[in-house]
Amino acid sequence: MVAETIDGKAFAARLRERVGEAAARFEEKAGRKAGLAVVLVGEDPASQVYVRSKGKATLAASMNSFEHRLEADTSQDDLLALVERLNADDAVDGILVQLPLPAHIDAQAVIAAIDPDKDVDGFHVTNAGRLAVGQAGFVPCTPMGCMMLLTDRLGDLSGLDAVVIGRSNIVGKPMAQLLLDANATVTIAHSRTRDLAAVVRRADIVVAAVGRAEMVKAEWLKPGATVIDVGINRLPPADGEEKGRLVGDVDYGPASQVASAITPVPGGVGPMTIAVLLRNTLVAAHRNAGLTAPE
Ligand code: NDP
């Protein structure tokens, strides 16, 4: 069997286009554009790339992008004061503080300061709680994107065995919650799990969110499983290469001989994150304007 490649890049492009069309309709109805504020503290190169691409994608989707770039030595109080201003600003529907923050700032305190109804990253404890009890809120973008790819591919997930490897607050736990809400039978594996291979072998759906290059082996997979690889890992450069290749948490080549469908890295889950961020911002804008959000 050769697995079908789940083309997250194409899916994300279609989602961004739909969000852009809906954002244009929002502007007509509300008399203003939806707006996303992104806050970057310091000069982490990867974060700068993410913030730049979020800004570009926001503008391309007919929304306002408000970028706030602060010096690395910005105090926590100054950052909290900016978050308060953004909370109070009616032109700002979504607020995203790019992580990681410099070590002298308590990221949890900053996330807690964001108005939960503008927390389009879905990291606020109120949104984690809403997800846990099944209330409408904001779901973290990466697991939401994985879920969209899964339901697009599999339709109804009821009764399927799903294994999520990783239990972080931003990927693993919300992923498991979403799968549970979709009536899958969910196992969450982590670094203390005994015999991970045996746990994975039961799964119709495997979501790997670990951060270890090519850790999940083809022999671990049940033939025909659907595999979502969240991991983004850079290998050391091979001879003649300037930068090492990007790989996922799944050993893609061999695994694609066993799975029925699998996301590549890059081009799988990665592009979904920004697309879902735009969607969440559009939903926030509708709620803030008292309008019904599109599906
Ligand atoms: P974390 O480091 O926060 O969590 C990793 C999880 O993996 C932990 O729960 C850890 O277990 C578990 N783990 C570590 N080693 C093992 C092991 N040997 N066996 C089983 N489980 C293990 O990472 P994130 O959740 O933030 O991210 C995971 C990956 O996804 C990373 O590669 C990251 O780059 C990528 N990512 C991609 C995104 C995108 O595509 N846009 C967005 C976010 C993340 P324990 O809790 O026991 O320590």
TrEMBL record:
Its EC number is 1.5.1.5, 3.5.4.9. The keyword Hydrolase applies. Pathway: One-carbon metabolism; tetrahydrofolate interconversion. Residues 140-288 form the Tetrahydrofolate dehydrogenase/cyclohydrolase NAD(P)-binding domain. Residues 6-121 form the Tetrahydrofolate dehydrogenase/cyclohydrolase catalytic domain. It catalyses: (6R)-5,10-methylene-5,6,7,8-tetrahydrofolate + NADP(+) = (6R)-5,10-methenyltetrahydrofolate + NADPH; (6R)-5,10-methenyltetrahydrofolate + H2O = (6R)-10-formyltetrahydrofolate + H(+). Keywords: Amino-acid biosynthesis, Histidine biosynthesis, Hydrolase, Methionine biosynthesis, Multifunctional enzyme, NADP, One-carbon metabolism, Oxidoreductase, Purine biosynthesis. GO terms for molecular function: methenyltetrahydrofolate cyclohydrolase activity; methylenetetrahydrofolate dehydrogenase (NADP+) activity. The keyword Calcium does not apply. NADP(+) binds at residues 166-168, 232. InterPro entries: Aminoacid_DH-like_N_sf (IPR046346), NAD(P)-bd_dom_sf (IPR036291), THF_DH/CycHdrlase (IPR000672), THF_DH/CycHdrlase_cat_dom (IPR020630), THF_DH/CycHdrlase_CS (IPR020867), THF_DH/CycHdrlase_NAD-bd_dom (IPR020631). PANTHER family: C-1-TETRAHYDROFOLATE SYNTHASE, CYTOPLASMIC, C-1-TETRAHYDROFOLATE SYNTHASE, CYTOPLASMIC-RELATED. Homodimer. Belongs to the tetrahydrofolate dehydrogenase/cyclohydrolase family. Catalyzes the oxidation of 5,10-methylenetetrahydrofolate to 5,10-methenyltetrahydrofolate and then the hydrolysis of 5,10-methenyltetrahydrofolate to 10-formyltetrahydrofolate. This is Bifunctional protein FolD.
